Amino acid sequence: MNLTTSIIGIAAYLILAPIAGGLLAGIDRKISARMQGRFGPPILQPFYDFFKLLEKEPITVNRVQDFYVMCFFIFIVITGCLFFAGGDLLLIIFSLTLASIFLVIAAFSSNSPYAQIGAERELLQMMAYEPMVLITAVGFYILNGSFNISDIVSSQVMGIQYLPGIFIGFVYILTIKLRKSPFDLSMSHHGHQELVKGLTTEFSGKTMAVIEIAHWYENIFLLGFVYLFFANSLAWSPVLAVVVCLATYFLEILIDNSYARMKWQFAINASWIVAITFGFVNLLVLYFIS
Amino acid sequence: MSTIIFLILFPFAVALALLVLKTDAARDMIVKVASIVIAAASVYLAVQYFGSGGEYFDFESETITYLMIGIETLLGVMIFYLGIKYKKYVASILAAIQTPVMLFFELGIGHSIHAANNLYVDRLSIVMVLIIGIIGTLICWYSIGYMKDFHHHHHEEPDRRPRFFFLLFLFLSAMFGIVVSNNLLWLYFFWEITTVCSFFLIGFTKTPEAIKNSFRALVFNMLGALGFTLAIVILGKYYGIMELNQLLAMGAMGVSVVLPVALLAFAGITKAAQMPFNSWLLGAMVAPTPTSALLHSSTMVKAGVFLIVKLSPVLGWNLAGVMVMLVGGITFLMASFAAISQSNAKRVLAYSTVANLGLIVACGGIGTYAAVWAAIMLIIFHAVTKSLLFLCVGTAEHNIGSRDIEDMDGLFGRMPKLATFMIVGIAGMFLAPFGMLISKWAAMKAFIDSGNVLLVMMIIFGSAATLFYWTKWLGKMVAIMAKQENIQQNVHKEEWLVLTSLTVLTVVICLVFPVMSSFLVVPYLETIYSSVATLALSSGNMYIMSAMLALVVLLPLLFYGKTSKRIVPIYLAGANLGDDLTFRGSMDKEVSVSLKNWYMDDYFAEKRMNLIGVIATVVVLVTVFSILLGGVL
Question: Are residues B45 and B94 in the same domain?
Fold first, then answer.
């Protein structure tokens, strides 16, 4: 990938990702509603909510929280830009970690009990998914000899053929990253749970709107990871990859609606066991055949 | 060459002066002047030998040899006596084995082997000299104020500060000796001095706990020294060499040097506090905080990893190399897990040190170009950041009366400057775009390229744990609590000066690391490895990292703490009474809020993590040495 395509990738991501992410959230809510036998909100509801949040009275609990949330947003966008510019996978993962830490720090800074419980749970979730995310990067590297996304998508081989275990493992932890039940521990908005909003308890108005849009940006590039497993130098592979991304997202909605939330112990046990069985075994096989 | 001699002898002379002079004014003066002189001399040495690919000096003298033998024997006798006095007979037994063996060897076979070059300087030495000379002296400078407070807090006890400063400077002298000695007998001599220095520093307060821990450190390090002794005897008797560069040259030519190298690496492992010996470093925190800072950042443990990095060209995929990489990997993983369960700030730092040293040791074990690059970078970044964090904790402890992270609630309100320094330090330890993460990134890539999947898994899971324990501490630091009284005006100005310097250094070193890499580390590696591989970080990624660093520094400067919004109370489980710390609960009772971190004892209980780590590493060590010795017998 050269500079021009990188710039096009970044520009497209900056403009289209929030639109696609918002639409995805709207579709998600619609499908979820139908699964639960409700009619559901209009597809554009997430955008209406977003604009409504912008009009709320500007209040905050301290002087620094908004700063951390802004950093969270900036680094999520940077992470996505690095991804769509065809950058280094490990760099992208580290940048994503930095962004997530800013969100956790924002919650910690309020010194509010609910926000702190959410923050600790968010950290636990990060510890749960981080190994599998890194294993995914390692898998792509062994397969393609490069961490660069531009090399991965122009490779001769299709990732899924050699990385089926890692794909399963990644989709598993994607449930955590997309904040879906049974792993929506840290900031679930469902009223029937013991911790409602958690991490985001002390955010409101514009700050909350920034978090929403950051999540739209984030979700799009998380699906980008799924895309990597199917995209290669073949012309039709991007189409297949996008279809699989949508199917994966639908699967996550299905899981979200069919499972009650689990305890945090289950989240970490299950994620690490999946990382070791599917991820590690896949890596071993990969080393063996390469 | 005279600069090298100066760097070894000058701190020693200062140490003697500090032992004799008892007044505060004289001590302050001497420590300050000496620190500046030593730091300047280190920089001068770096400039002097900057362009050279490594220079060797014969510097032969019968007198020095006999002097060293004499001092070693005296130290042996002293340890034997102290072991009996405090009923720690293992130390006495080890001294009784080691000292005569060494004496017999040095006067016998060792005497007949001619060492052509006793001293040397190459770029790795320069890196180490700069770390010792700058970080080490900053810690000495910090100690001036800290030890006044310490003496004040423990005024019922005799003033042992002369001895304390004597040991600090002696330590620096011995460390300089270690990184420039080519003759293994010299290296061993300085190695022993650091062991004895740390023994006395750990036992400084003379409480029963301190004495117990100091003997543990002594015994473990003497076990390592026993390995060192055996390596020297084997090298002298069967290979007829006494010099480090000859050992490396032999290995490069294909002569099997696995056994002596494994023994030397074993010595490095004990000194670098790797499992199963990590408990000595954890025990070392009974000493005054500057001691911990010194042991963890620029001296002692860094001597251990220095030796392993030095040996790395002859490690790799042989038994010695596999032993080193497995011990390092297991230690990194288990120590990172154990750190999660700790609430004592110094213990968190100690486990983090053990873990990071594990990473360095594992890199040294792999021994490839990229792995050693990562190892040296880790040594540099770790020295700066860890000394900053230890000294921050030391200052916090003297001002809030606790070193427990749970007691650092609202530190941002009470000591904003200190909390900011700590935030920089913590972020520097594990976050992009700071140095430790860059090195860890390189290490991870080196692990993957080496084809050791097990090691890759260890670094991956260990990193996830690292993220958890640092961020929860960071969370405590950034928490804003209402109505906190600012108490930071009581901190000594020497402490501020050092903490500020180290904080600035933590950031600056990340900015200049590409320069350090291309002018110090890469040229060093080019003299060691014939083939120059590409580095983990392409120049493109380095630019992105630098841009991110600029952003992370600039954003807070521009926007931190600025808001036009109305500030409202936080949400509590009942009506907030207005101070954000108490609320009206059920039955109209006032309830105060207290927030605690997660420690996940069911998962990461310290004892269990240590047990697993110790068993695993003992199995590795015993297996490797059984095979190696089985081959000899």
Answer: yes
Structure tokens at A172: 């598993």
Instruction: From chain B, pick out residues whose CB is under 8 angstroms from the CB of A272.
Output: 461
Judge whether B300 is closer than 8 Å to chain A, CB to CB.
no
Residue B196 lies in a domain: yes
The answer to the question of residue B572 being in a domain is no
Domain co-membership, B52 together with B87: yes
Question: Which distant-in-sequence residues (6+ apart) come within 8 Å of A269 by Cβ?
Answer: none
Query: Same structural domain for residues B428 and B469?
Result: yes
- Average pLDDT, stretch A236-241? 93
Asked if B563 and A60 come within 8 Å (Cβ–Cβ), the reply is yes
Is A64 in contact with B561 (Cβ distance < 8 A)? Answer: yes
From CA A190, how far away is CA A256, in angstroms rounded? Answer: 12
B60: pLDDT strictly greater than 80: no
B598 neighbourhood in chain A, CB within 8 Å: 120, 123-124
* List of residues 6+ apart from A235 with CB closer than 8 A: none
Specify if B575 maps to a domain.
Answer: no
Cβ within 8 Å of residue A202, ≥6 positions away:
A61, A65, A107, A110, A112, A114, A115, B570, B571
Query: How confident is the model at residue B534, as a pLDDT?
Result: 63
Per-residue confidence at B116, pLDDT binned at 50, 70, 90? confident
Query: Count of domains in chain B?
Result: 2
- Based on the fold, state whether residues B147 and B43 are members of the same structural domain: yes
Burial of B297-316, coded b for 16+ CB within 10 Å and e otherwise, reads bbbbbbbbbbbbbbbbbbbb
Interchain contact, B565 vs A66, CB within 8 Å:
yes
Beta bridge partners of A148: A88
The answer to whether residues B116 and B218 belong to one domain is yes
Kindly give, in sequence order, each residue whose CB lies less than 8 Å from that of residue B564, ignoring residues fewer than 6 positions away: A58
Which element (helix H / strand E) includes B592? strand B590-592
Out of B310, B345, B362, a domain closes at: B310
Number of domains in chain A: 1
Kindly state the tokens that stand for B120: 């040397």
Say if residue B533's pLDDT is above 70.
Answer: no
Say yes or no: B338 and B219 in one domain.
no
Asked if omega into B433 is within 30° of 0 (cis), the reply is: yes
pLDDT digits (tens, 9 = 90+) for B385-420: 999 999 999 999 888 888 899 888 888 888 989 999
Kindly state whether residues B365 and B472 are assigned to the same domain. yes
Amino acid letter at A231? A
Whether B431 sits inside 8 A of A87 (CB atoms) is: no
Segments forming the whole domain that contains residue A96: 3-289
Which of B294, B310, B326 terminates a domain? The answer is: B310
Percent of chain B topping pLDDT 90: 55
Domain that holds residue B629: 315-562+580-633
Rg from Cα positions in chain B: 24
pLDDT at A140 over 70: yes
Non-local (6+) Cβ contacts of B218 within 8 A are B79, B88, B91, B195, B196, B199
Is the pLDDT assigned to residue A192 strictly greater than 80?
Answer: no
Residue B306 and residue B345 in one domain: no
Chain B positions in Cβ-Cβ contact with residue A80 (cut-off 8 Å): none
**Which residues of chain B does A62 touch, with a Cβ-Cβ cutoff of 8 Å?**
480, 567
Q: Is B422 contained in some domain? A: yes
Residue B100 preceded by cis peptide, ω within 30: no
Distance CA A101, CA B432 (A): 11
Q: What is the pLDDT of residues B534-590, one digit of tens each?
A: 665 777 888 888 888 889 888 888 888 888 888 888 888 778 888 888 888 888 888
- Is there a contact between A108 and B569 if contact means CB atoms under 8 Å apart? no
- Three-state DSSP at B438 gives helix
Say what the pLDDT of residue A163 is. Answer: 95
The predicted complex's ipTM stands at 0.95
